[in-house]
User: What shape does this take?
Amino acid sequence: NIAIGAVYKFLRESKNFTQKEAAGEEISIPQLSNFENGKTIVGTQHFIVLLRNINVEMFEFQNAYNQYLRNNDILFFTVRISEAVMERDVAKLKLFLLQVKKLLSMNPNSKRLKIDYIWIKSVLYFIDTSYILTKNEEDVLISYLFNLKEWGIYDIRLLGTCAQFIDVLKLAELTKRMINPIQMNIVSYHIKHAMIQCILNIINIFVEKKIFEPARRLILYLENTEIHDYFMFDKLTLIYNKANYSYQKGDPNACLLYTSPSPRDGAT
Assistant: This one.
């Protein structure tokens, strides 16, 4: 609660809004002051309006909140793990793994810690192939993913990173569930981008294993998905995947214009 209020205050002041302007007609100024100082909390419906009053989107608040906790939270994957992978920093990844393992020893029933451990171990595999998931870890991963009803960024990136450890039939089914259009969050810009990156990695896995029908369906899905021009690498990877798909199927006219982008490059 202290962190939430403190982060809100930081964003409000960084946007140069007074407490009166931020509170508006939603809550009183004393209520806002107590919230910012960690003395009270505000209801969700009020908090959404308070964010709107200072021109901050929910995902921006979440990012600022994560940054606030970053020095104390070794599980801040979307930044710290990704940075370690990009830097090929095996020592840092191994340290993260040991830290999570220590936490897990103190809380062995924590599902989140089990999944976090599997995630880091899978990321390490892209740099050091000796880090292979055990059968029990694979079972925990599969159980977690198959029981999801809503897929968030964490879950999508988890699937993309761990896909090489999942049986192809289960991988095809999980991918189908992930792109299920009835999900609430699928319209989110950030969710869609994470999903595109995950699917590109999975297409590559299917093609390498010569499992062509699921690969064809995913290529078609991405061709019918609007990929923003900002993500030119994703567009080029799709072109490569489509050409590689045709080539692996035996099409002598498939034109491979791009060097194969290893799934290790975009695992997180």
